[in-house]
Specification:
The chain has about 475 residues and is an alpha+beta fold. Helix content is about 30%, strand content about 25%. It has a domain of about 90 residues: Nuclear Transport Factor 2, Chain: A. Helix 2 runs antiparallel to helix 11 and helix 3 crosses helix 6.
Length: about 475
């Protein structure tokens, strides 16, 4: 049994309460973690956050920061519940794989075998392609006019109905393109084969068995005092964010949880309590696309794999909340960050925490700016216009991948605001840099690798 020491600090710049729980035996050794997280959270200006850091499967940091409710001065606590947005997809994927393991779902079957109301053109879409975002099904949140209906309570099929007028975006299995529609369909699938409401299935088969007492699928705005209110940073001011109707997120992002419950889930997942370890490994393995290349998604897990970094997990970004659950394999570090701020930059904070405590430390100090950074800015500006220049890429294959995968992603996020280099590693053959790219509608973390000649040879991103 671990004994925890409570430390409370008040930071004058923002008047925000910062609460840290550290085991006395490691408090002194982990002071750099505390200092780093303090610095990052103040800089990010989130309303509130709950963070857990695990190294070698031991909790080395657990802390609460800021306010769950600014107007009523309610601080974030261990029991504060956050919307975890797309981290929900990991739970839904687990449910599908449980049912598959019990021979209730055939992952190789067509989605039409289970959801007969879908257009006939969905016949080539396999269940596993919904799990790994290679289905080609359009994303319902990108349909023109979506926000006009986003405050309505709708059935999942009604939410998806606007995309049924459009063709698939590509031949299933040939590309990897993130779509919230995939997981709305998987939620419907779970209900069809289990005979239970999705919230009941998740509660009975995952949440209750693991003791996750503060985790649930939100189906209406209940005014629960334990749930943090959501905020958005606008013009350097935190403003209350009016929530969407929960039916608009549902299986794609409607779960509410706490950092301690997420820790219980993580421990169960990596110990084989929920699924066999072979299935968990498959969830974290890149899917092969039609051309033989690896995708950036497994089964319910986002992936980032470069020569210097191997990471699996999920990020969740939505109105009022921003969350990350990331597992850095090479350093055996797992980081859980839940925030109640739309632009909370949880994935970027997680990566910087990782850098500060891993053996491959990357300085958090502001790096030198040079022509590579200017080239990256130019590449992103051109991408917004649908263009990319061969001169910036090592070869035609990398250029084509950028056109096919990165440009459509970049164009979804609006005007380019800033490109900030957050650190680099060098060797004689390459330069590896991390960038925070801020668009009008979102921010994302990118890893870009340059050849010694200054050409882009690899890129990857995570929201």
């Amino acid at each position: 049994m671990r004994v925890f020491k409570l430390i409370q600090l008040k930071f004058k710049p923002f008047g925000i309460l910062f609460i840290i729980f550290l085991c006395p035996c490691i408090a002194q050794a982990q002071q750099p973690i505390t200092d780093t997280i303090q610095k990052l959270l103040i800089k990010s200006k989130v309303a509130g956050a709950a963070i857990t850091v695990i190294k070698n499967e031991e909790v080395v940091y657990s802390g609460n920061y800021g306010y769950a409710d600014i107007a009523n001065n309610i601080p974030v606590s261990d029991n504060t519940e956050f919307g975890i947005m797309s981290l929900s997809k990991n739970f839904v994927a687990c449910a599908v794989l449980q049912l598959s393991n019990n021979n209730k779902i055939n992952l190789d079957a067509s989605v039409l075998d289970y959801i007969y109301e879908l257009p006939k053109l969905y016949a080539p879409v396999k269940i596993y392609q919904l799990l790994n975002h290679t289905s080609g099904v359009p994303d319902y949140v990108h349909v023109k006019g979506y926000m006009q209906h986003a405050n309505k309570s709708q059935t999942p099929l009604a939410v998806l109905n606007p995309i049924f007028n459009d063709p698939l975006e590509f031949v299933p299995g040939t590309k990897n393109d993130y779509s919230n529609s995939n997981y709305m369909l998987l939620g419907i699938l779970i209900e069809r084969v289990s005979g239970k409401k999705l919230k009941d299935y998740l509660n009975e088969m995952i949440f209750q068995p693991l003791g996750m007492k503060h985790t649930y699928l939100e189906e209406n705005i209940m005014g629960n005092r334990d749930k943090a209110k959501g905020y958005t940073l606008k013009n350097d001011h935190l403003a209350y964010q009016e929530p969407l109707d929960p039916s608009q997120y549902w299986a794609a992002g409607g779960i509410v949880s706490t950092k301690n419950d997420m820790l219980l889930y993580h421990k169960a997942l990596i110990s084989g309590r929920l699924l066999s370890m072979s299935i968990v490994k498959t969830m974290m393995t890149p899917v092969k696309l039609g051309d033989g290349t690896n995708s950036e998604y497994g089964l319910g897990f986002e992936l980032m794999q470069t020569p210097e970094l191997e990471m699996a997990g999920n990020t969740g970004v939505g109105l009022g909340y921003n969350a990350a659950y990331l597992d850095f394999f090479k350093d055996d570090i797992t980081i859980i960050i839940l925030t109640n701020t739309t632009n909370g930059n949880s994935a970027l904070i997680a990566k910087q925490i990782h850098d500060a405590i891993s053996s491959n430390h990357v300085s958090l100090d502001k790096p030198n700016q040079d022509n590579l950074d200017e080239m990256v800015k130019s590449v992103f500006k051109n991408a917004l216009q649908g263009n990319a220049e061969q001169a910036n890429f090592q070869d035609a294959e990398i250029l084509e991948k950028f056109k096919q995968t990165a440009i459509p992603y970049i164009q979804q996020h609006g005007e380019l605001l800033t490109v900030e280099q957050k650190g680099e590693k060098k060797n004689p053959e390459r330069v590896i840099r991390r960038y925070q790219i801020t668009f009008k509608n979102s921010a994302s973390m990118w890893v870009i690798i340059f050849s010694k000649e200054g050409k882009i040879i690899m890129f990857n991103h995570m929201e």
